[in-house]
Amino acid sequence: MKAIRYHSHGGPEVLQVEKVPRPKPAKHEVLVRVHAAGVNPGDWQIRSGLAGNRFPLPYIPGWDVSGVVEEVGPGSSLFRVGDEVFGMTADSGACAEYVAVPESQLAHKPAALSHVQAAAVPMSSFTAWHSLNKQGRLQAGETVIVNGAAGGVGHFAVQLAKQAGARVIGVTSGRNADFVRGLGAGEVLDYTAAPLEGTPWQADLAIDTIGGPNGDMLLETLRSGGRLVPVTFGHYNAEKAAARNVTVNEVQLLQISKTTLETIANMFDKGDLRVALDMVVPLEETRRAHERSESRRARGKIVIEISR
Ligand SMILES: NC(=O)c1ccc[n+]([C@@H]2O[C@H](COP(=O)([O-])OP(=O)(O)OC[C@H]3O[C@@H](n4cnc5c(N)ncnc54)[C@H](OP(=O)(O)O)[C@@H]3O)[C@@H](O)[C@H]2O)c1
């Protein structure tokens, strides 16, 4: 089968189109004929070596997948050949014509979404859902600040927080302000025009999808007793957090839950959630997709279309 693969860490140029053996589904896995693979920052973080050496080379990138079940592995009972499914692989590999995926990490594709749209959903929406509801313990009526509101995780976090009955403040650059308001943010802070410090909000919860030095500024947007949930690594001054009585959660590397994926699929089918696509490219142009993700300017999601 055709796949994107690399043999050494480096820039987007290490990504090659290659012929590789088609995987066999193991116990409790299904083989998916991939229609589309979603791109996440983790893809280029692993490719460049930033994420360390725990991912064996040669490596096929891609965690998010949407496609059709081609073959059912031993002991698998949840899907049948021909089912349209979406979800997250256990160990990347979605940038290929076929990938084997544990059936526990897949759900039926929402009928309302194309494969390209569905492939954009799993990792980002699950991360947003988990950080708001599980780590952030969001309650209706609370105020949530989403840092990086226009990105893959952020654009779902704004919508999911609004759906949960929260007042949402989105932090984004001015060019994305209308986009973020359209997702349900009551207010937007253009971080290129004004610093986060000194904002009048006393938010209950902050979701940080950006990290870096901005973390300390986010602490100042929270009320005493507020919670900060980072989905990526940032600098949060422990003394400042303690002085402000703000709890800072640990970054968690998440494994998707089937139940949550089904809940999210249902929200799409009911029209309660939508996905924004920044860029869709064919498999042969995966380099371009990585470059775009690495630019940190994507509005919504980047997807690689593999077959129609
Ligand atoms: N813990 C996990 O399991 C998990 C899962 C998924 C993702 N992550 C991590 O979460 C992070 C976000 O992922 P993502 O997919 O949302 O990234 P992304 O889609 O690449 O984020 C791009 C967005 O970031 C915004 N942005 C860039 N700099 C900003 C700043 N200083 N302040 C506010 N917004 C800014 C950009 O908007 P503007 O152009 O308007 O600035 C753009 O829309 C990544 O580091 C990723 O590795 C972790």
Automatic annotation (TrEMBL):
Residues 10-304 form the Enoyl reductase (ER) domain. Keywords: NADP. One of its GO terms (molecular function) is oxidoreductase activity. It comes from the Bacteria. The keyword Lipid biosynthesis does not apply. InterPro entries: ADH-like_N, ER, GroES-like_sf, NAD(P)-bd_dom_sf, Zinc-ADH_QOR/CCCR. This is Enoyl reductase (ER) domain-containing protein. It comes from Paenibacillus beijingensis.
